[in-house]
Amino acid sequence: MMRLFINAFAASAGGGLTYLRNVIPHLSERDDVQTTVLLSGRSQNMLPQTKNISFMQPDDSAATAARFWFEQRAVREYVRRSQAEVLLSAGNFAIFNSPVPQILLSRNSLYTSRHFTSDLRDRGDYRLWIETQLKATLAKRSIEVAECTVAPSEAFAEELRQWTGRNIRAIHHGFDRSAFVADTSPLPACIQERLASKANAFRLLFVSHYNYYRNFETLFRAIPLIKRGLGSREVVLFLTCKLVSGANPGSYRTDFAASLVRELGISRNVIELDAIPYGQLHHVYRAADLYVSPAYAESFAHPLVEAMSSGLPVVASDLSVHKEVCGSAARYFEQFSPEQLAERVVEIAGSPELAAKLSKAGVERSTKFSWKKHVECIVELAKNLRSTLTSFSEVLKTFP
Predict the structure, then answer these.
(1) What predicted TM-score, i.e. pTM, was given to this entire model?
(2) Fewest CB within 10 A of the end CB: N or C in the chain?
(3) Residues 6+ apart with CB under 8 A from 206
């Protein structure tokens, strides 16, 4: 049996928790792997307790304030204590001088995005710009020290190859529809009321916390154009966030986006549902007519797969990652063009045949992604690293 250690100390929200929530059950089903997961106590409460999985929590309660330095100081000791043979670092940053071979999961596209860098400067958010540059330096160095780096899509793997000159392995993130719809508990009554109140409108959905790189502003600028294209039919955009400072993860400022909604006169067309528990998101997808993603930086985009699985036609920005994930099951637009975005939405809204075609293609496309297959690839990679190290050790023993 192979002993695997997952450093997921930074997984407290968003993609990190989604990854663990989906990977852990499949690791648990394997009798050839014993997995130890290091993460915060808060995160552990959100994850299933399963066989073949043990959890470790950091002793230092103040570690969150300096995660990278905590990891460099303490994670090596946790790895040794667990007697792990391979380390899987799940949060973009490697452990330097790891005591065992290390697989690095790199999934933050902001470190390679020139659009994000430019956006931060344009917004005058120099503190976040400096923070991002520092993290990018550490992320790049992490790729250099890890034995193997894995990206969640081929498009992002190619970005990392061009950025670092290193060989990057692409292993798609997965999707399990049965797990996604397993929670049958209803949405809170207030959310149900907001969704039901717009049942006769053409309903767009965008699932994301507010941040800059998801390009909310281009989507907002498209709404008046969509309204004009649909004529008398009402259009609404459901958001799974609040455009209020402090209501979203990170330090992203919502003031410009909120003021833009008011300036465009679309306050009645933008419905802020607030964050929806992951297990209940499938209810929200089913209440919409079309999914839209205007993001200008992405490494995989789970909501696109969730939307396709839910039968929603998709309109997405023309990122290589989006095209890789959706293929012919979506319509694309130039990422900073509200005019093209509006044209794609109006085209689908006006053609039930096209909407049905995209819906069918999306459902089929979503079945191409599997968390079980992802875990199989990661375990195979870990075993190969272990075997390589063992073979090298045996060779060294032959020398006097």
Answers:
(1) 0.91
(2) C
(3) 214, 216, 219, 237, 238, 239, 240, 291, 292, 293, 294
- On whether the CB atoms of residues 242 and 271 are closer than 8 A, the answer is no
CB atoms within 10 A of CB 232: 5
Six-digit token string for 288: 């919409």
Sheet strands side by side (includes 168-170):
53-56, 33-38, 2-7, 86-89, 102-105, 148-151, 168-170
DSSP state of 56: E
Indicate the helix (H) or strand (E) that contains 272.
strand 270-272
Measured distance between the N- and C-terminal CA atoms of the chain, rounded to whole angstroms:
31
Cβ of 134: how many Cβ atoms within 10 Å? Answer: 11
- Mean pLDDT of residues grouped by 10 in the chain (400 residues)? 88 69 90 89 60 78 56 85 94 91 95 97 95 95 96 98 97 94 93 92 97 98 98 96 88 95 97 92 97 97 97 98 98 98 98 98 98 97 83 40
Q: How far apart are CA 32 and CA 389, in angstroms?
A: 18
How is residue 70 written in tokens? 């905590």
Q: What is the CATH number of domain 2-174+370-397?
A: 3.40.50.2000
Q: Do 123 and 212 touch, CB atoms closer than 8 A? A: yes
User: Which residues, in sequence order, are CB contacts of 184 under 8 Å at separation 6+?
Assistant: none
Ranges in the chain annotated CATH 3.40.50.2000? 2-174+370-397, 179-366
Domain 179-366, CATH number (from 3.40.50.2000, 3.90.105.10, 1.25.40.10, 3.20.20.70): 3.40.50.2000
